[in-house]
Write a structure and sequence with these properties.
single chain, 248 residues, alpha+beta, six-stranded antiparallel beta sheet, three-stranded antiparallel beta sheet, 27% strand, elongated
Protein backbone atom coordinates (compact mmCIF):
# COMPACT_ATOMS: atom_id res chain seq x y z
CA UNK A 1 0.00 0.00 0.00
CA UNK A 2 2.86 2.39 0.82
CA UNK A 3 4.36 1.65 -2.61
CA UNK A 4 1.10 2.55 -4.33
CA UNK A 5 0.93 5.86 -2.46
CA UNK A 6 4.54 6.71 -3.29
CA UNK A 7 4.13 5.85 -6.97
CA UNK A 8 0.96 7.94 -7.11
CA UNK A 9 2.69 10.85 -5.40
CA UNK A 10 5.61 10.72 -7.85
CA UNK A 11 3.15 10.82 -10.74
CA UNK A 12 1.24 13.71 -9.17
CA UNK A 13 4.44 15.73 -8.75
CA UNK A 14 5.34 15.10 -12.40
CA UNK A 15 1.89 16.21 -13.55
CA UNK A 16 2.17 19.34 -11.43
CA UNK A 17 5.45 20.14 -13.18
CA UNK A 18 3.81 19.63 -16.57
CA UNK A 19 0.97 22.00 -15.59
CA UNK A 20 3.56 24.68 -14.77
CA UNK A 21 5.19 24.24 -18.19
CA UNK A 22 1.87 24.44 -20.04
CA UNK A 23 0.80 27.51 -18.05
CA UNK A 24 4.05 29.29 -18.95
CA UNK A 25 3.57 28.42 -22.63
CA UNK A 26 0.01 29.75 -22.60
CA UNK A 27 1.11 32.95 -20.87
CA UNK A 28 3.52 33.63 -23.75
CA UNK A 29 1.27 32.95 -26.73
CA UNK A 30 1.63 36.58 -27.84
CA UNK A 31 5.30 37.05 -26.83
CA UNK A 32 7.51 37.79 -29.84
CA UNK A 33 10.15 35.13 -30.46
CA UNK A 34 9.05 32.96 -27.52
CA UNK A 35 10.02 29.27 -27.69
CA UNK A 36 7.72 26.75 -26.04
CA UNK A 37 8.90 23.97 -23.76
CA UNK A 38 7.42 20.55 -23.09
CA UNK A 39 7.65 18.26 -20.07
CA UNK A 40 9.41 14.92 -20.40
CA UNK A 41 9.34 12.07 -17.90
CA UNK A 42 10.85 8.63 -17.52
CA UNK A 43 10.61 5.54 -15.32
CA UNK A 44 12.73 5.15 -12.23
CA UNK A 45 12.96 1.51 -11.18
CA UNK A 46 13.09 0.73 -7.49
CA UNK A 47 16.18 -1.22 -6.52
CA UNK A 48 15.28 -4.87 -6.06
CA UNK A 49 15.90 -6.76 -2.87
CA UNK A 50 16.46 -10.51 -2.84
CA UNK A 51 16.34 -13.30 -0.28
CA UNK A 52 15.77 -17.05 -0.29
CA UNK A 53 12.97 -16.64 2.25
CA UNK A 54 10.68 -14.54 -0.03
CA UNK A 55 7.41 -16.37 -0.62
CA UNK A 56 6.88 -14.56 -3.95
CA UNK A 57 9.38 -13.32 -6.54
CA UNK A 58 10.18 -9.62 -6.73
CA UNK A 59 8.01 -7.46 -8.97
CA UNK A 60 9.07 -4.41 -10.99
CA UNK A 61 8.06 -1.15 -9.35
CA UNK A 62 8.16 2.06 -11.42
CA UNK A 63 8.29 5.60 -10.11
CA UNK A 64 7.88 8.72 -12.29
CA UNK A 65 10.75 11.21 -12.43
CA UNK A 66 11.18 14.53 -14.22
CA UNK A 67 13.49 14.10 -17.24
CA UNK A 68 13.61 17.80 -18.12
CA UNK A 69 11.74 20.35 -20.22
CA UNK A 70 13.22 20.37 -23.74
CA UNK A 71 13.02 23.54 -25.80
CA UNK A 72 10.97 23.59 -28.99
CA UNK A 73 13.23 25.46 -31.41
CA UNK A 74 10.83 25.48 -34.36
CA UNK A 75 10.25 28.89 -35.90
CA UNK A 76 7.16 30.91 -35.11
CA UNK A 77 5.09 32.68 -37.73
CA UNK A 78 6.72 35.77 -39.25
CA UNK A 79 4.45 38.81 -39.22
CA UNK A 80 5.15 41.96 -41.21
CA UNK A 81 5.01 45.13 -39.10
CA UNK A 82 6.50 47.73 -41.44
CA UNK A 83 8.69 49.05 -38.60
CA UNK A 84 12.21 49.56 -40.01
CA UNK A 85 13.73 48.62 -36.63
CA UNK A 86 11.98 45.25 -36.49
CA UNK A 87 13.74 42.14 -37.76
CA UNK A 88 12.73 38.47 -37.79
CA UNK A 89 15.41 35.78 -37.83
CA UNK A 90 15.33 33.19 -40.60
CA UNK A 91 16.89 29.96 -39.35
CA UNK A 92 18.24 28.91 -35.98
CA UNK A 93 20.23 32.01 -35.00
CA UNK A 94 19.79 34.32 -32.00
CA UNK A 95 20.28 38.03 -31.35
CA UNK A 96 22.82 38.94 -28.65
CA UNK A 97 21.76 41.47 -26.02
CA UNK A 98 23.54 43.01 -23.04
CA UNK A 99 21.75 42.59 -19.71
CA UNK A 100 22.76 43.37 -16.14
CA UNK A 101 23.75 39.70 -15.80
CA UNK A 102 25.91 39.75 -18.94
CA UNK A 103 25.38 38.72 -22.55
CA UNK A 104 22.15 36.87 -23.24
CA UNK A 105 20.35 35.59 -26.36
CA UNK A 106 16.89 36.19 -27.75
CA UNK A 107 14.73 35.70 -30.83
CA UNK A 108 12.58 38.76 -30.11
CA UNK A 109 13.40 41.25 -32.87
CA UNK A 110 11.18 44.22 -32.03
CA UNK A 111 13.75 46.95 -31.38
CA UNK A 112 13.67 50.66 -30.61
CA UNK A 113 16.02 53.55 -29.85
CA UNK A 114 16.20 54.64 -26.20
CA UNK A 115 16.81 58.11 -24.77
CA UNK A 116 20.60 57.65 -24.93
CA UNK A 117 20.52 56.78 -28.63
CA UNK A 118 21.16 53.04 -28.22
CA UNK A 119 19.31 50.29 -30.07
CA UNK A 120 17.47 48.28 -27.39
CA UNK A 121 14.85 45.58 -26.97
CA UNK A 122 11.39 46.27 -25.55
CA UNK A 123 12.81 45.35 -22.13
CA UNK A 124 15.57 47.95 -22.42
CA UNK A 125 18.47 45.55 -23.07
CA UNK A 126 21.12 46.87 -25.45
CA UNK A 127 21.23 45.05 -28.79
CA UNK A 128 24.81 44.12 -29.57
CA UNK A 129 26.49 44.42 -32.93
CA UNK A 130 29.80 42.96 -34.05
CA UNK A 131 31.58 45.92 -32.42
CA UNK A 132 29.37 46.30 -29.34
CA UNK A 133 26.19 48.34 -28.70
CA UNK A 134 24.72 50.15 -31.70
CA UNK A 135 24.24 53.87 -31.09
CA UNK A 136 22.81 56.78 -33.06
CA UNK A 137 23.58 60.50 -32.98
CA UNK A 138 20.65 62.87 -32.19
CA UNK A 139 20.58 64.25 -35.73
CA UNK A 140 20.44 60.83 -37.44
CA UNK A 141 17.20 59.71 -39.07
CA UNK A 142 16.01 56.89 -41.29
CA UNK A 143 17.38 54.06 -39.13
CA UNK A 144 16.74 50.65 -40.70
CA UNK A 145 17.96 47.04 -40.49
CA UNK A 146 19.01 45.18 -43.64
CA UNK A 147 18.62 41.45 -44.46
CA UNK A 148 22.22 40.78 -43.44
CA UNK A 149 21.78 42.63 -40.12
CA UNK A 150 23.49 45.86 -41.19
CA UNK A 151 22.01 48.88 -39.41
CA UNK A 152 22.03 52.11 -41.44
CA UNK A 153 20.78 55.68 -41.15
CA UNK A 154 20.85 58.71 -43.41
CA UNK A 155 24.45 59.13 -42.23
CA UNK A 156 25.48 55.65 -43.42
CA UNK A 157 26.16 52.27 -41.74
CA UNK A 158 26.08 52.20 -37.95
CA UNK A 159 27.02 48.57 -37.33
CA UNK A 160 25.90 45.04 -37.96
CA UNK A 161 23.74 43.02 -35.62
CA UNK A 162 25.59 40.15 -33.99
CA UNK A 163 23.87 36.84 -34.74
CA UNK A 164 24.97 33.60 -33.11
CA UNK A 165 23.99 29.96 -33.11
CA UNK A 166 24.50 27.00 -30.76
CA UNK A 167 25.64 23.46 -31.45
CA UNK A 168 23.11 22.22 -28.88
CA UNK A 169 20.15 24.53 -28.32
CA UNK A 170 18.85 22.11 -25.66
CA UNK A 171 21.48 23.55 -23.34
CA UNK A 172 19.84 26.99 -23.42
CA UNK A 173 18.29 28.10 -20.14
CA UNK A 174 15.37 30.51 -19.80
CA UNK A 175 16.19 33.52 -17.65
CA UNK A 176 12.95 35.48 -17.92
CA UNK A 177 12.26 38.58 -20.04
CA UNK A 178 12.39 36.30 -23.10
CA UNK A 179 16.17 35.81 -22.99
CA UNK A 180 18.34 32.70 -22.75
CA UNK A 181 21.72 31.93 -21.25
CA UNK A 182 24.09 29.12 -22.11
CA UNK A 183 27.01 27.45 -20.38
CA UNK A 184 28.63 26.83 -23.78
CA UNK A 185 29.98 29.61 -25.97
CA UNK A 186 27.93 30.44 -29.08
CA UNK A 187 29.24 30.29 -32.62
CA UNK A 188 28.92 33.15 -35.15
CA UNK A 189 25.94 32.57 -37.41
CA UNK A 190 27.94 33.61 -40.46
CA UNK A 191 26.17 33.64 -43.81
CA UNK A 192 23.35 31.55 -42.29
CA UNK A 193 22.33 34.55 -40.20
CA UNK A 194 19.67 36.13 -42.37
CA UNK A 195 16.86 38.46 -41.36
CA UNK A 196 13.52 39.59 -42.69
CA UNK A 197 13.44 43.37 -42.12
CA UNK A 198 10.24 45.09 -41.04
CA UNK A 199 8.85 41.93 -39.47
CA UNK A 200 8.84 40.02 -36.18
CA UNK A 201 8.74 36.34 -35.33
CA UNK A 202 5.74 35.43 -33.23
CA UNK A 203 5.62 32.81 -30.49
CA UNK A 204 5.77 29.17 -31.64
CA UNK A 205 3.24 28.13 -28.98
CA UNK A 206 0.23 26.34 -30.51
CA UNK A 207 -2.71 27.42 -28.32
CA UNK A 208 -5.14 24.68 -29.34
CA UNK A 209 -2.57 21.95 -28.67
CA UNK A 210 -1.63 23.49 -25.31
CA UNK A 211 -5.28 23.74 -24.26
CA UNK A 212 -5.79 20.08 -25.16
CA UNK A 213 -2.73 19.11 -23.12
CA UNK A 214 -3.97 21.26 -20.24
CA UNK A 215 -7.30 19.41 -20.11
CA UNK A 216 -5.62 16.00 -20.34
CA UNK A 217 -3.12 16.77 -17.58
CA UNK A 218 -5.84 18.23 -15.35
CA UNK A 219 -7.91 15.06 -15.72
CA UNK A 220 -4.89 12.86 -15.00
CA UNK A 221 -3.93 14.96 -11.96
CA UNK A 222 -7.47 14.72 -10.55
CA UNK A 223 -7.54 10.96 -11.17
CA UNK A 224 -4.24 10.42 -9.33
CA UNK A 225 -5.35 12.66 -6.46
CA UNK A 226 -8.56 10.63 -6.14
CA UNK A 227 -6.60 7.37 -6.14
CA UNK A 228 -4.24 8.64 -3.44
CA UNK A 229 -7.23 9.72 -1.36
CA UNK A 230 -8.84 6.28 -1.66
CA UNK A 231 -5.60 4.52 -0.75
CA UNK A 232 -5.14 6.75 2.28
CA UNK A 233 -8.68 6.09 3.42
CA UNK A 234 -8.13 2.35 2.95
CA UNK A 235 -4.98 2.57 5.06
CA UNK A 236 -6.78 4.38 7.88
CA UNK A 237 -9.62 1.89 7.77
CA UNK A 238 -7.22 -1.07 7.95
CA UNK A 239 -5.39 0.47 10.91
CA UNK A 240 -8.67 1.12 12.69
CA UNK A 241 -9.82 -2.47 12.23
CA UNK A 242 -6.49 -3.82 13.43
CA UNK A 243 -6.75 -1.67 16.53
CA UNK A 244 -10.29 -2.91 17.20
CA UNK A 245 -9.16 -6.51 16.78
CA UNK A 246 -6.25 -6.01 19.19
CA UNK A 247 -8.56 -4.52 21.84
CA UNK A 248 -11.25 -7.19 21.55
Amino acid sequence: MENALLVGLSRQMALGRELDVIANNMANVTTNGFKARSARFQDHLMAKASADAFSRPDRRLDFVIDAGTPLDTSSGAIETTGNPLDAAIKGDSFFVVQTQAGERYTRAGAFQVDATGQLVTNDGNSVLGDAGPITFAPQETGAAIGPDGTVTTTQGPRGKLRLVRFDDVRALRNEGANVFSSASAPQPAGIAGRLEPGAVERSNVRPVLEMTRLMEVNRAYSSVASMIGRMDELKRSAMSRLADTANS
